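FAQ: What does a ligand-bound record look like?

Like this one, built around adenosine-5'-triphosphate:
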Amino acid sequence: MNAISIQNISKNYKDTKALEDISFEVQNGQLFGLIGPDGAGKSTLFRILTTLLLADKGQAFVDGYEVVKEFREIRKRVGYMPGRFSLYQDLSVEENLSFFATIFGTTIEENYDLIRDIYVQIEPFKKRLAGNLSGGMKQKLALSCALIHKPTVLFLDEPTTGVDAVSRKEFWDMLRSLKEKNIAILVSTPYMDEAVLCDEIALIQEGRILKIDEPQSMIHQFDRPLFAVKTNDTYKLLKHLRLKPFTHSVLPFGECLHLISSERMSAADLQDQLRSEGFADVIVSKIKASIEDVFLELSHKTEGHV
Ligand SMILES: Nc1ncnc2c1ncn2[C@@H]1O[C@H](COP(=O)(O)OP(=O)(O)OP(=O)(O)O)[C@@H](O)[C@H]1O
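The answer part, i.e. the structure of the complex:
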């Protein structure tokens, strides 16, 4: 049995199509990532799966239970860390954890084993109000609270948004260790670099799934030549490259441009050509695709660009 099974789920808010025909499955013990920018529909899907919102169409099952008819069973079995406001800011660390344990009819002691590795890091601050914790500590407390009733499926909606790089890394290490305990985890993130840390990912944009696969397999399937192109006048170069016959697509990417070429060519030849065309400072390097490149390429196709 799958931990999560989503079948043709759609949801509209008036004129906004938040989710359109979403289907995928998450296995027990799998770390599954929902990767997409703000507004892609991630939180809407989490709220449907955690039985807080009704879908317009489709069906979904969590731990074998149907989200509408059997919502009570699901609520007992899942842990949910919403993007915001999951903690009581005016309760202490210890009080927050006791509160979540109590509403699920358990105690901190009963399930301490599951949260030990995470909770020991914030235990020295157990008398501190949650509102006075750092972002990374809040996140560890929220995860401890979501785990305290020993859920079989864990929903984490953008758990690392607004958290520093070190805490983000620690958090992903914790997720990997929870997975070893056979807990299924559905985690959403707008950070493409976190995608490779998942067993499987769904890329989502404007309510639609662009692709589902293992992250390495997505990267592997990206077989076009890809170049990072850097110059002082990025905008001028972008316009210039868009007109080139070899350009499959070109997009701004941090401080440089990522060019996908439809022809095989060397970085040195491309650099020479662009320098001779007036971009004297241009630097071209051949690079390996990241999940962000895969995402941009797929979303570019969907939007019907060249
Ligand atoms: N209650 C609501 N009423 C109207 N529109 C909504 C509502 N909630 C979400 N939306 C819209 O539905 C779309 C999907 O939003 P959703 O919050 O699910 O996306 P998200 O991927 O979680 O992004 P974010 O991280 O910004 O919340 C967006 O266009 C959003 O503006």
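Follow-up question: can I read anything off the structure? Yes, for example: The mean pLDDT is 91.
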